Amino acid sequence: MDSKKLKIIVIGSSGTIGKEVSKNLEGNGHEVIRVSRNSGDFHADIQDKNSLEQLFRSVGNFDAVANAAGDVKFGPLENFTDQDFAFSFESKLMGQINIVRTALPFINDNGSFTLISGVLTDEPIAGGIIGTTVNGAIEGFVKASSYELPRNIRINCISPTVLVESEDYHPFFPGFIPVEAWKVAKAYEKSIAGVFNGRIIKV
């Protein structure tokens, strides 16, 4: 992407990262369309493919999608149920894969997707087995799909560590150095406005 004004859909815009991503992109002169389950310019649930299709059809053509949504379950391995795994796969993994699949007919040539994984891919924590598994799958999807997306469309993934603002999670990340959400937002800007493709951008 060049420095022109872009039309960017931010999914998960009501969350800590999504708010900062939206604010930073608007501050750089881009048109931001905020999307979340219950607030924003449009509502969508990434676990519902029909919801995503309706979203992209309603918005029309756009230049980029920045996703900051997706949930996983945490806990001891022996306590996980099939439903815990299914929920996590359907939310953070298939939710993001389906964002890309459903948006392809609507995204402009030379557009971009920015998805989200996390530090657990490389640095597991106690209780984070599902998170590590899902994040690794997301990053694999991004690397592989970067070779197959049509019309010079790019895809990258942001991998943040625990956030300064998420104090409730700090005890579960002993020894990790938290990062401010605005720094994660700058990584999204790098993905959208830069030339990277198939990259995992760690923050």
Automatic annotation (TrEMBL):
**Keyword annotations for this protein?**
Oxidoreductase
Q: Which SUPFAM superfamilies match?
A: NAD(P)-binding Rossmann-fold domains (SSF51735)
Superkingdom of origin: Bacteria
Question: Gene3D superfamilies of this UniProt entry?
Answer: NAD(P)-binding Rossmann-like Domain
**Quick check: keyword Lipoprotein in the entry?**
no
Q: Which GO terms describe its molecular function?
A: oxidoreductase activity
Family, per the entry? Belongs to the short-chain dehydrogenases/reductases (SDR) family.
Task: Write the protein's name.
Answer: NADP-dependent 3-hydroxy acid dehydrogenase YdfG
